[in-house]
Write a structure and sequence with these properties.
The chain has helices spanning 18-29, 53-56, and strands at 3-7, 32-34, 67-69. With 82 residues, the protein is of the alpha+beta class. The chain is globular, with a radius of gyration of 15 Å.
Length: 82
Amino acid sequence: MGQRLRLKASFDVSQFPHQSRVMLKALKRYGMILADNGAPWYIGGTPSSRWDNDDLHGLHGVKGRDFEVVDTSSLPKPRSGR
């Protein structure tokens, strides 16, 4: 739990609906943290009337193979809170 993934830069988002493209572009730039609970490859979020659920159903077309693992080994380790 907690693996960092990023949508591959080569993944073509052009055929997805507008709001799905917004999410996919963010996944390319910022990535996500994968959890081991819930449905397989389910992207969760906070419900909002500003999102079109029908548009976001396009995200079901994204597969695990479309992501790459982000190597965080060179990032500084957090300091102890002591």
